[in-house]
Write a structure and sequence with these properties.
Two copies of one chain form a homodimer.
Chain A (H helix, E strand, L loop, with lengths): L7 E2 L2 H10 L3 E3 L11 E3 L1 H19 L4 E2 L5 E3 H7 L1 H4 L1 E7 L5 E3 L17 E8 L3 E3 L15 E4 L4 H6 L1 H7 L6 E10 L14 E11 L10 H4 L3 E5 L9 E4 H6 L6 H17 L6 E5 L11 E9 L3 E12 L1 H10 L5 E3 L1 H4 L5 E3 L2 E8 H12 E6 L2 E6 L10 E5 L4 H16 L4 E3 L5 H9 L5 E5 L1 H6 L1 E6 L5 E5 H10 L1
Parallel strand pairs in A: 4-11, 13-15, 23-24, 23-25
Antiparallel strand pairs in A: 1-21, 2-3, 5-10, 6-7, 6-8, 9-10, 11-12, 12-20, 13-14, 15-16, 16-17, 17-20, 18-19, 21-22, 25-26, 26-27
Helix pairs in contact in A: 2-12, 3-10
Amino acid sequence: MTSAGRGKEVKKDEIAELARRRGFLWQAFEIYGGAAGFYDYGPLGAQLKRRIEEVWRDFYMMEGFYEIETTNIAPGGIFEASGHLESFTDQAVVCKHCKSFFRVAGSVKVREKCPACGGELEAAGEFNLMFQTRIGVPKGDSDSGVKKSEGYLRPETAQGIFLNFQRLLRFNRDKLPFGIIQIGKAYRNEISPRKSLIRLREFTMAEAEVFVDPKGKNNHPRFEDVKDRMLRIVPGEGEGGGEEEKSVGEAVKSGIIANEYLGYHIAKVDEFLERIGIPRAKVRFRQHLREEMAHYARDCWDAEFLSERYGWMEIVGVADRGDYDLSAHASFSNADMSVHAQADAQGEAEPVKLIPHVIEPSYGIDRIFYALLESSLYEEQVGKEKRKVLRLKSEMAPIKAAVFPLLNRDELKKKAREVFQKLRDASIFVEYDDSGSIGRRYRRQDEIGTPYCITIDYETLEDDTVTIRERDTMKQVRVAIAEVKDVLVKV
Amino acid sequence: MTSAGRGKEVKKDEIAELARRRGFLWQAFEIYGGAAGFYDYGPLGAQLKRRIEEVWRDFYMMEGFYEIETTNIAPGGIFEASGHLESFTDQAVVCKHCKSFFRVAGSVKVREKCPACGGELEAAGEFNLMFQTRIGVPKGDSDSGVKKSEGYLRPETAQGIFLNFQRLLRFNRDKLPFGIIQIGKAYRNEISPRKSLIRLREFTMAEAEVFVDPKGKNNHPRFEDVKDRMLRIVPGEGEGGGEEEKSVGEAVKSGIIANEYLGYHIAKVDEFLERIGIPRAKVRFRQHLREEMAHYARDCWDAEFLSERYGWMEIVGVADRGDYDLSAHASFSNADMSVHAQADAQGEAEPVKLIPHVIEPSYGIDRIFYALLESSLYEEQVGKEKRKVLRLKSEMAPIKAAVFPLLNRDELKKKAREVFQKLRDASIFVEYDDSGSIGRRYRRQDEIGTPYCITIDYETLEDDTVTIRERDTMKQVRVAIAEVKDVLVKV
């Protein structure tokens, strides 16, 4: 029922203010002065984030993918193999005067002045972005190279999936292709994070790793389902870099997107973002330039969201990792990461052994959370007043409905409590509110995206009916209490 | 439909074997030789763990509690305040010969021999059990005391809730009591972990922090609902330490359980464990002895599960943390952690300011997962064969139903695929299997706890009916395809 375009979009700082005031998002450790790059999700934020994750999980499980859960901490050897110890780095500069460190990127370059005190900057070398720790009790200094007791917090959830590849293959009865998903924390020890949710040191990723026969990458069994989906794409340098509208089918056919598997998963990302309510007009897919590609990637596309505050920002990456990771782990661990391919699938006379390729959609859940908040918040004039309204889809809203007694009278409050309890007993997440004028209570729910407000009045006491008011249209209908549940569940 | 007592219970090592073979639980980093204290959840394990977490979340949200999500990493200052830097420690001994470290506990004490090589042991001091890391780029050695850049992985999720207390109070409109929940990873850098899932270095906790007026602890508004629940309890030393059966009401009345809030939440833990299917006969509540209590606790009860493998093991702790944490953070951060109590609630003439007390049920999800596996696995004789069956409650089972073609014929496989897809489209998590004899396929599903197997045969092609076979009774019924969904959803 969202009437897009109605009301003007709310300015950027109001999102941060609303998120803080209403319990979506809080700077972590604030009573101790905070620490850059760390945020906590408050009650409404955690609820919204959970909804994003649940929809994501269902979305990929419907593809037949299974979820696994691997550890946040891993020994150093794994990241030696994966290449993160060598390549997951940023260049830093240090201020000669105040000794602050900065990441070399965008606005801060060597020979510019210190953003903190104006002092002179000098190169401070390359820093690995993984958080390091130590597993167990130190055993002296006798070890050399990467010590077994050196641990790191994972920079992506993917490695935990690759390490279990053989078992997962067996779970899938030795057949390709198959997909595995994981949702969990990942960590990046940023040198000088500034941009709120956009550059976090601890964040949530939702990743799918799709293992495929390299010779079958151009033959996705459900490509037909997505091929006509129109995408806004920005091809890499080879194509001139301009933005264009193309169907997934055309983009794969013309070679802009390298293969059907990659194309299929780019389309799925687009579908998911639409499903949770990110406006399609604010999403595009940009191909990485060669020099910005991660060390493991053969090709990579970012789903970008057009933020009023940050401009185009990456919210999902879809990479073709080739056989990089499985080959690296095979070589470092001596484990056999190959698959016996069926003779017919290969068009070969004899069965062959191959290392699968990996297609990886990798979602930044915190950024998607931000994109959803920013693109859902509107301000509009209602009579003489302004109202803020968070136009979340009903299935995403942290609170499904609020129950109000029209007036602050005991008999109405008692009845409202009953209706509230009845809905909660039916596992519908509702809130009760009897404080302030009814108009004020509507506004409170509007700005947190609650799709329905249910009001109990004196008529209710006579005939067991209530009014249900819809958030976007502000229209009210009178409904029997016995039917309220069905109305809320249906929509 | 579980017929408890039928079939004999399966010996302990078979659980680990099944968990590994069928994709419930895998030792982490195995291709690199593994690392003690770290496990990964495979596809079926992650699914079962998720069900435990979802039921837990719903259970406490029905209490009116809100969930939040705070960071895994936190600066050192927080754990200075919380007391973990000083008190979250174990004594270690080191072997003079092989240099292995061991935790001083149970079987390993100073003057005994090294469990690894038989060498002589000596005291090696006290080790803090938090994983340490460094946030951002090191800024030289000029800092003193706990450096701002020193970070730790949280040893419990609770501190993240305490740090946000003021905001959470405001979210609850400045009223007590209220409850906040969190599910997430916690970490404990064990000196020498050995016992699989029982002593992990990285684990999942589900915690509720209930903030209450200290003068209201003996007046829980819903105590009536739980007071007649019978518990098997082991009071601390003051009571002689014997096991007894008592109702929650009696235990509170006689002072064995200190107050109604603590009693209410002990009863809720018992209810939750029963809800997910842990047999009541295998659960007891044991009060901590004074010397084993955590540094923050005034009183603490463990819900213990009687494991065939490990004996009585803690799976949940319910602690009265008093005002320890809020007072500590108030004092270290200078934040105001007090609440204006209502005059009438206090029986005082004037409103007073108070620091709330905290009642905390704290669940170890991995141990509950293990307890559920162990207590659900049975082996029984069926004709001449033995079958293993995982008698999980239907709502907990990783896979809700499996769909089989009776024979390996194209027309049956096609129809079975259709039924499979139809159920999956209805968001029911089903599996398809056409490999091996039907008996073998039943056994495969039995041992992972799938409650229903749906078989497509030649009759299906004629009249669109299938057989549904129930796991525990092994009885089969014939049902129209159109009704299968309802049958599965209902049970």
